[in-house]
Specification:
heterotrimer; A alpha/beta (about 475); B alpha/beta (about 230); C alpha/beta (about 240); A: about 475 residues; alpha/beta; four-stranded mixed beta sheet; globular; B: about 230 residues; six-stranded parallel beta sheet; about 30% helix
Chain lengths: ~475, ~230, ~240
C-alpha cells in the first residue's frame, strides 16, 4: 500500500472512510470496556503498575548487564545469539540463515520487531516465502495492507471484505460466516506450519536470569511457529529483557488485562533454548537495537523503552479512535507510536506525530507501566522546534506573544485591538468560516462567539474605581 | 552469517548509559504479590469456575479408575476415534491406552515413536483428533493449566489435535499465577536442567480478529477438556 | 481569607464574564479578592507547542508578578493553566541554577489553586448559595481531571445549586478535542473528536454544559453553534455566581 504524503491527508482519508470509523468505534469501545471489567477484579492494579515501572526503570538503567546475562544464558542452553545494530543487519542474518538451510518458506508469528525491520520484504527478495500466521496479520498480508491496531491488525476490514479476499486469493468458495473464514485459515496455515523450514517470532519478554523467551497469544499460531519447524528465530528488541523469572508475575498480570481485558491469554509459552537438544533443532535470538540505544541515551526520553506493546493507549486515545493506525504512517500507531516512531525513524521523518495529540492524558492513565506519554510528546515537540524550528508564522506569533507577555500594557492594548477586529468581522455576534489570521482552519469547523468589548482587567479597574 | 555486531551493540548500550564497562546492579527486592485471597472458595471450585468462564469444559472425578471412562465419553461425544497420548507416566499407570483400545479407539502413545524423526511424530499428531496429557500445575485464579516439556511431548500433544484433554490432580492446583511462576522457576524451566519449554493454557484457542467476533479454535485446539481428579 | 486572582489570558481578553463571575462568587463566600493587572499568560500555549524559550520568558514574568502577592492563595478559573504552573514549571526550569527563582516558583506553585478546588478543599464549602433553573451536564476538562485529579468537587458544587437539574452525559471524561494549537494544526481531527462530544452532550438532554476551562468551552460552544444545537456552555464560575 502506498502511503499518502502527510498526516493531515492520511487522517482525512481515515475520517472519510465510514467502514473504518465504525470499526474503530467498535474496537476501541470493546477493548476499553473489557479492560474496565478486568480491572474491577484487580484491586491491586496500582501496586502492580508501580512495581512494573520500577522493574522497567531498573532494567533499562542496567540494560548492558541484563543483556549480557540473557545472551550468555541463551548460549548456555544451546541457542545462538546475534546482535543486530539495525534492520539491515537483522534481515541479512535471517536471510543468510534461511539460505544456508535451504529454506523455502518461513512461518511468522505476529511481531512488531519484524514489521519494524520489514523482514518480510527481505525474505521475499531472497526467494523465501514469509507467511504471517496470526489470523489478522494473515488477512493483512493477503490484502497487501498495513495493520490498524497493535493487537487487532485487521479490524478495519469487514467480514464481507475478508470473504471476498479469501475467495479471490485462496481460490476457495466464498465463506459467509466468521467460523468458515477461521476454518479456511486454520487448514491453509496448518499445512504451512508443517512444511516451513523456519518459524519466526518476536518476544513479549526475555528473562535474563534463565534465558527464557516468553510469548503471549490467543490463537496458538505462536506455539506452532516456535514448536513445529526445526529452526526458531526470535527477533527481539533489546528493551524486552526482564531480570528475573519472578518479574513475570507482575507483567503477565498487566499485559493481558491491558490488551484484551483477559486475566490471562489462551497461551503463554516459555522457551529455553532450541526445542530439542539433538543438534538438529536451532534457536536464534536476534537482539535488535535499530535506534533503541539512541532513545536510551536521552534521559528525558528513556522511559519510551518501558512500553510492553499492550495497545491500551491506542484504545483510549481520542485521536487514534478517529484516525486509526494506518494514518500514523508507520507500524507503531497511537500515542506510543507518536513517541516511538519519531525516535526510531528520526525526527525528520516523523516530525508531525508529536503534535497530533490533544494532550488529554488518557494514555498516561491507561498505560500499565505508567509511561508519561504526554510529557514525552511535549519533550519531542520541544526537540522538533529546537532542531528544525516551527513555521515562520507560528514562530513569530509565539515569540511576539511572549514579548507582549512581559509588557502588560501593550498586551492589553493589543488585546483590545484584536477584540475590535474580531467583532467587526463577526456576523450576528459570531465568527464563522472566515479566514481570520492563524485561525482559518479552526473556523472552518467551529464558530466563535465574537468577544466582549471589554476585558476582565478593564472591568476590574472600573469596579475598583467605583467600589 | 554476517559480521556479529555483539561488541558494537553492547558498546552502544553502555555508552548510552554513560559508562564503558558493565556494572553489576544492586537487585531490587523480590516482588510480593499484594493480592489477598479469600479462603471461602476451594481451589478446585475456583479453578473450575475460572476455566469454565474461558470456555474449557471441566469435570471432576473422584477416583483414578474413572478417568478412562470420562476420556472415552468425551471422545464419543465428539465423534472422535483417533487419540494420541503424551508419554506421561500417570497416563500409563491409568492404562489409558489399553482402555481406549478395548473400547474400539485407535490410540497411540508418543513413547512408541522412539528415536524416529520429529517430523514423523508431528505429522502423526496433526492427523489425530484428540490429544491427552496431564499437567505440571494448574492456576485457580485464572483457570489455567501449565504443561512442561518434562512430560514427554505433552506440548505437541496438547497443541496439534483439535481436541485436548488434560488430567489435573487437585493437589496440582495452586492459588495464583505468582505461585505457579515461582514453582516453575524453582522446579522446572528456571532450574539448570533438561526442561526446555513450558506453556500455560487458559481455555481453547481463540481469535477475535474478524470484526471482533470471538471464534474458537483458530490454530490450537477447538475444545479443551479438563478432568480434575479429586480423590 | 485573601486570594489573588490568576484570571488567565484567555478569560481576561475573551471571556471576561468568567472572571467577573468568579469575583462575585468568592466575595459572596466572604473571600477578599485581589487582581494584579501586571499578569498576562502562564506560557502554556508556547510550552505545549514546543517553544520552551518563549514559554520560559512568560513563566518568568508570571512568577515575578505572583511571587510577591500578599494572598493566602492564588486562584485560577482553569484546570489547564493551573496544571501548567503546578506540574510543568519545574520541568520548564529544569537545570536552572538561580536559587531565588526556584524558591519563588515553589512559593507560587504551592499557593495556586483551581477555582473549584479552592472552594471545596480550602473553603470547605459545597453550597455556595447559588440557584439556577435548568438542566445541566458537566464536562471533565482533561487537565483538571488527569493533571490535577479533580472530578468530584465540581460535581458536588453543581449538585448543591438550588433548583438545578443535574444529569451526567456518557463518558464525560473524554476529551473535547481542543488541545491548544492541536485544534488549529489538526483542525479536522480535532473537530471529529468534538463531534463525538457534541453528540453525547445532545444525548444527555442537558440545556447547559458546564466545565472549568474556557478553552474547552470555546471548542464545545463552537461545535454546538455550528451544529445548530440549542445547548449553551457555561463556566462553573458563571453557574455558581447565579443567584
Amino acid at each position: 500500500m502506498t502511503m499518502t504524503p502527510n498526516l493531515t491527508a492520511r487522517s482525512h482519508a481515515a475520517l472519510e472512510d465510514p467502514i473504518l470509523q465504525t470499526a474503530l468505534k467498535n474496537a476501541t469501545g470493546t477493548f476499553i470496556e473489557k479492560r474496565r471489567v478486568a480491572l474491577v477484579d484487580t484491586p491491586d492494579w496500582e501496586t502492580l503498575r508501580t512495581r512494573a515501572r520500577e522493574v522497567k526503570e531498573h532494567t533499562i538503567n542496567n540494560l548492558d548487564y541484563y543483556l549480557e546475562q540473557l545472551a550468555s544464558n541463551v548460549q548456555k542452553l544451546g541457542g545462538k545469539v546475534y546482535w543486530a545494530r539495525n534492520d539491515e543487519d537483522a534481515n541479512r542474518y535471517v536471510v543468510e540463515l534461511a539460505r544456508s538451510r535451504n529454506v523455502e518458506s518461513a512461518v511468522k508469528a505476529k511481531s512488531m520487531a519484524t514489521e519494524e525491520i520489514e523482514l518480510n520484504h527481505a525474505l521475499e527478495a531472497a526467494g523465501v516465502r514469509p507467511i504471517e500466521t496470526d489470523l489478522g496479520e494473515y488477512i493483512i498480508q493477503l490484502a497487501h495492507e498495513k495493520p490498524t491496531h497493535i493487537i487487532a491488525p485487521a479490524i478495519h476490514k469487514t467480514r464481507g471484505q475478508i470473504s471476498d479476499l479469501f475467495a479471490d486469493k485462496l481460490a476457495v468458495e466464498r465463506p459467509n460466516e466468521v467460523e468458515e473464514i477461521t476454518a479456511i485459515a486454520r487448514a491453509r496455515l496448518r499445512n504451512e506450519f508443517l512444511t516451513a523450514g523456519i518459524g519466526i517470532s518476536g518476544a513479549n519478554f526475555a528473562i535474563a536470569e534463565t534465558g527464557t523467551i516468553v510469548l503471549v497469544e490467543n490463537e496458538g499460531n505462536i506455539r506452532l511457529t516456535t514448536q513445529v519447524p526445526r529452526i526458531h528465530v526470535a527477533v527481539v528488541g533489546i528493551e524486552k529483557v526482564l531480570p528475573r523469572f519472578s518479574d513475570l508475575a507482575v507483567f503477565l498480570q498487566l499485559l493481558p488485562r491491558s490488551g484484551t481485558g483477559q486475566k490471562l491469554t489462551s497461551y503463554v509459552s516459555f522457551l529455553n533454548g532450541p526445542r530439542m537438544d539433538d543438534g538438529e533443532h536451532e534457536l536464534h535470538l536476534i537482539l535488535l537495537d535499530n535506534g533503541r540505544t539512541g532513545i536510551l541515551a536521552d534521559e528525558q526520553m528513556r522511559e519510551s523503552l518501558y512500553c510492553i506493546r499492550c495497545g491500551a493507549c491506542l484504545n483510549v486515545c481520542p485521536v487514534y479512535q478517529k484516525i486509526g493506525g494506518q494514518a500514523y504512517g508507520w507500524i507503531y500507531p497511537g500515542p506510543i507510536g507518536a513517541i516511538i516512531s519519531p525516535q526510531l525513524q528520526g525526527l525528520q521523518k516523523a516530525r508531525e506525530l508529536p503534535f497530533a495529540s490533544s494532550l488529554c492524558g488518557a494514555c498516561r492513565v491507561a498505560c500499565p507501566v505508567n509511561i508519561n506519554i504526554p510529557d514525552l510528546l511535549l519533550n519531542l515537540r520541544a526537540k522538533v522546534m529546537e532542531q528544525q524550528g516551527g513555521k515562520f508564522s507560528e514562530r513569530t506569533a509565539m515569540h511576539g506573544f511572549s514579548l507582549l507577555g512581559s509588557r502588560p500594557r501593550i498586551f492589553s492594548a493589543m488585546g483590545a485591538i484584536g477584540r475590535r477586529v474580531a467583532r467587526m468581522m463577526g456576523k450576528n455576534g459570531k465568527l464563522r468560516r472566515i479566514n481570520f489570521p492563524g485561525l482559518g482552519s479552526w473556523l472552518r469547523y467551529r464558530d466563535v462567539a465574537a468577544p466582549n468589548e471589554s476585558s476582565f482587567r478593564a472591568w476590574w479597574k472600573e469596579q475598583d474605581h467605583n467600589g | 552469517m554476517g559480521e556479529n555486531a555483539t561488541a558494537s551493540v553492547l558498546d552502544d548500550v553502555r555508552s548510552a548509559l554513560g559508562r564503558t564497562e558493565t556494572v553489576r546492579p544492586q537487585m531490587i527486592p523480590e516482588f510480593v504479590d499484594p493480592t489477598k485471597w479469600s479462603a471461602d472458595v476451594s481451589l478446585v471450585e475456583q479453578f473450575t469456575a475460572e476455566a469454565t468462564a474461558v470456555g474449557a469444559k471441566v469435570t471432576i472425578v473422584t477416583a483414578r479408575e474413572l478417568i478412562a471412562d470420562r476420556v472415552i465419553e468425551i471422545c464419543r461425544g465428539a465423534g472422535a476415534t483417533q487419540v494420541a497420548l503424551s508419554g506421561s507416566e500417570f497416563l500409563s499407570q491409568c492404562s489409558l491406552k489399553g482402555h481406549l483400545e478395548q473400547s474400539g479407539f485407535a490410540a497411540t502413545s508418543v513413547s512408541s515413536f522412539g528415536d524416529r524423526k520429529k517430523e514423523v511424530l508431528i505429522a502423526h499428531l496433526a492427523s489425530r483428533e484428540v490429544g491427552v496429557t496431564t499437567v505440571a500445575y494448574a492456576i485457580a485464579e485464572t483457570g489455567t493449566i501449565a504443561i512442561t516439556s518434562d512430560e514427554d511431548q505433552a506440548l505437541l500433544v496438547s497443541l496439534l489435535p483439535p481436541i485436548h484433554i488434560a488430567i489435573v490432580e487437585s493437589s496440582q492446583i495452586k492459588q495464583s499465577l505468582t505461585t505457579v511462576l515461582s514453582d516453575l522457576a524453582r522446579e522446572s524451566i528456571g532450574r539448570e536442567g533438561p526442561c526446555r519449554s513450558a506453556t500455560f493454557i487458559t481455555g481453547p484457542s481463540r481469535t477475535a480478529d474478524v470484526e471482533l467476533t470471538l471464534t474458537i479454535g483458530v490454530h490450537g485446539p477447538k475444545e479443551l477438556h479438563l478432568i480434575v481428579l479429586a480423590e | 481569607m485573601r486570594v489573588s486572582l490568576f484570571i488567565t489570558c484567555l478569560n481576561d481578553q475573551v471571556f471576561p464574564q468568567v472572571g467577573i463571575a468568579m469575583v462575585k462568587t468568592l466575595r459572596r463566600l466572604g473571600v477578599e479578592v485581589d487582581f494584579n493587572p501586571a499578569q498576562t499568560c502562564c506560557g502554556q500555549p508556547a510550552f505545549n507547542t514546543g517553544y520552551r524559550k518563549d514559554a520560559r520568558a512568560l513563566a518568568e514574568h508570571f512568577i515575578d508578578v505572583f511571587q510577591n502577592e500578599r494572598a493566602d492563595f492564588i486562584v485560577a478559573p482553569s484546570g489547564s493553566c493551573t496544571a501548567m504552573v503546578r506540574n510543568y514549571y519545574q520541568e520548564l526550569f529544569h537545570g536552572a541554577t538561580d536559587k531565588s527563582r526556584l524558591r519563588a516558583i515553589e512559593g507560587v506553585r504551592t499557593r495556586l489553586r483551581e477555582f473549584s478546588e479552592f472552594i471545596v478543599d480550602e473553603l470547605k464549602v459545597e453550597d455556595v448559595g447559588a440557584s439556577f433553573d435548568g438542566r445541566v451536564t458537566y464536562h471533565d476538562a482533561c487537565h483538571l481531571l488527569r493533571e490535577l485529579n479533580i472530578s468530584e468537587g465540581p460535581r458536588r458544587l453543581i449538585r448543591a445549586v438550588r433548583g438545578i437539574d443535574y444529569v451526567e452525559m456518557e463518558a464525560p471524561d473524554t476529551c473535547c478535542g481542543f488541545g491548544g494549537t492541536f485544534s488549529v494544526k489538526y483542525a479536522e481531527i480535532s473537530n471529529a473528536i468534538l463531534e463525538e462530544k457534541i453528540a453525547r452532550i445532545n444525548r444527555s438532554g442537558a440545556q447547559y454544559v458546564v466545565a472549568n476551562d474556557s478553552s474547552c468551552l470555546m471548542q464545545i460552544a463552537g461545535g454546538l453553534s455550528r451544529a445548530g444545537s440549542p445547548v449553551k456552555t457555561m463556566h462553573l464560575a458563571e453557574l455558581l455566581a447565579h443567584a
